[in-house]
Amino acid sequence: MEVVIAAPDELARLAADAVERLLVARPDAVLGLATGSSPQLVYDELARRHAERGLSFARVRAFLLDEYVGLPADHPQRYRHVIDADLVSRIDLPPGAVHGPDGLAVDLEAACAAYEAAIARAGGVDLQLLGIGTDGHVAFNEPGSSLASRTRIKTLTLRTRQDNARFFGGDADAVPRHCLTQGLATISAARHLVLLATGVGKAQAVRQLVEGPVSARWPATVLQLHPHVTVLVDEQAASLLELADHYRETYADKPPWQGL
């Protein structure tokens, strides 16, 4: 696991560099896209590079991490709409290139199985962008989630609904109580995981992710078992890391030809 501590705009640049490097080497790469506030600056940077430098996503396929269950098709907080506003409408991803679990399916378990199969048919995810919740969840894998889990139905905790209430007019009761989410094993199958976290509210979760024991109590800790994980955090999110100076030193001394 590589930990990089920098200002938020620099973290966004580094994450965009990793995506651009992948697309130059493999224009038909498969991306894993996260929603929420954590990747927003990354999407802004990718959109800028597309507009100003011609970075192309024309052959890319993409998969979303999760989706709320039961939100109407036209609801602005459906993640299909969110990712369209945040990224897809600003670049040249072709129609139908972005896939997400079907939160309106009649048979939700079958929808989860179909989503797993779609990721497998695409050859798996090359680079997955991630955020982390204040309780250590990734995607909607709440504390207690199986580290071997696959795409499934989950119940959202009150804490997560309170964290997400800002997207629903501040009303936690308006946040759906159920979701479909990629499991921890599904996420871990991606070839490169890039996790972003900013702000003091994420500090405890980041500490557990990087330096705590691997445990379902903090689901993100499963990333410690992955061979290629990049954790991008600002000073506030890194404030509880005991080895922060070590991470700064190793990144500063990294050979210049190596990317993330």
From TrEMBL:
Name the job this protein performs. Answer: Catalyzes the reversible isomerization-deamination of glucosamine 6-phosphate (GlcN6P) to form fructose 6-phosphate (Fru6P) and ammonium ion.
The pathway noted for it is: Amino-sugar metabolism; N-acetylneuraminate degradation; D-fructose 6-phosphate from N-acetylneuraminate: step 5/5
Regions annotated as coiled coil: none
GO molecular function terms noted in the UniProt entry: glucosamine-6-phosphate deaminase activity
Catalytic activity, EC: 3.5.99.6
Q: Which gene encodes it?
A: nagB
Read off the Gene3D superfamilies from this record.
Answer: 3.40.50.1360
Tell me the ranges covered by the Glucosamine/galactosamine-6-phosphate isomerase domain, including all copies. Answer: 9-224
Originating organism? Cellulomonas avistercoris
Q: Which reaction does it catalyse?
A: alpha-D-glucosamine 6-phosphate + H2O = beta-D-fructose 6-phosphate + NH4(+)
Fetch the PROSITE patterns from UniProt. GLC_GALNAC_ISOMERASE
* SUPFAM superfamilies xrefs: NagB/RpiA/CoA transferase-like (SSF100950)
Specify the superkingdom. Answer: Bacteria
Q: Which UniProt keywords apply?
A: Allosteric enzyme, Carbohydrate metabolism, Hydrolase
Relay the activity regulation note.
Answer: Allosterically activated by N-acetylglucosamine 6-phosphate (GlcNAc6P).
Q: Which residues form the signal peptide?
A: none
Q: Per its UniProt record, what InterPro entries does this chain match?
A: Glc/Gal-6P_isomerase, Glucosamine6P_isomerase, Glucosamine6P_isomerase_CS, NagB/RpiA_transferase-like
Matching PANTHER family? GLUCOSAMINE-6-PHOSPHATE ISOMERASE
List the residue(s) that the UniProt entry marks as the site Part of the allosteric site.
Answer: 145, 152, 154-155
Q: What is this protein called?
A: Glucosamine-6-phosphate deaminase
